[in-house]
Amino acid sequence: MTSPRLRATPAGAPAGVAGHGPLPRLGLVSPDWVLLAVAVVAVSASGPLTAATAAPALAIAFWRNALAVAALLPTLLRRPALRAELAGVDRRTLLLSLAAGTALAAHFALWLPSLRLTSVASSVALATTTPLWTVLALRLLGHRRPAAVWLGSAVAFAGVVLLTGVDLAVSTEALLGDALALGGGIAGAVYVLLGAEVRRTTSTTSYTLLCYGAATALLLPVCLLAGAALGGYPGETWLQLLAITVVAQLLGHSLLNRVVRGLGPSVTSTSLLLETPGAVLIAALALGQLPPVAAYPALVVILAGLALVIRGERR
């Protein structure tokens, strides 16, 4: 039985995901780019939607996964091929999918509560270290990333810092929030890497059902132990939870799971840095909040970093 872990490629071998060959070439006309753009816009709306939802952070994390699973179940019932695929999932794929769901649950459980302990700037900056951890993990697994990928990841993250600023407070509560946000960024990298591996052989729908199902099952006891109310909300809050599920989870995370197979984990995770300026611009359009002056140059810097990552991966 193959071990359920990411396998490293031999030194000097073409760097693919988990040792299964070279990464696909990133054609500029690929539909994946359009889907990635939609996904980035969708996850950018997650912050404003979450901030407007009057429910505990852990409860939001639980419901966005649980409602996503509920939304996918009719597809499972209508498609015999999907049921057959899930029934035939091997042990390694199942374990990797469950591990990805665990990482996703950890990402939400750590990052969302951090927003209430430390400044939003610190939380966002630390949570968006995902691409840096992704590239580092790939290197440790034996995948030699081009210098442009390392440089692009650093440049893109610098754009986030430019927008959010460096605001590390020294209070115990703020330091705890910073630690939670950093943990959320690391968990996000694990989620992206595991998803890239599973998606090599598994359809997007099968993977998301397994992953979101695992996240839901893990977040439920966490909410109960933390005393986070899972019900008793007004109708407006339930509508907001549905909006978060449809936009951020189904259009955001599910499309990211769709494109990671073709674009690779480095490009996919680096593109998530666009979530920060995207959220600022969405707030400006939807709420009439004037973006800070730093939003526009930060967006340019992040795009420049992403371009470097894409160029490095294509080479």
Automatic annotation (TrEMBL):
Domain EamA: 176-310
TM spans (from-to): 33-51, 57-77, 93-114, 120-141, 148-169, 175-194, 206-231, 237-256, 268-287, 293-310
InterPro entries per record: EamA_dom, EmrE-like
A GO cellular component entry from the record: membrane
Keywords: Membrane, Transmembrane, Transmembrane helix
Superkingdom: Bacteria
PANTHER family: ACYL-MALONYL CONDENSING ENZYME-RELATED, EAMA DOMAIN-CONTAINING PROTEIN
Family: Belongs to the EamA transporter family.
Name listed for the protein in its UniProt record: DMT family transporter
Organism: Streptomyces hainanensis
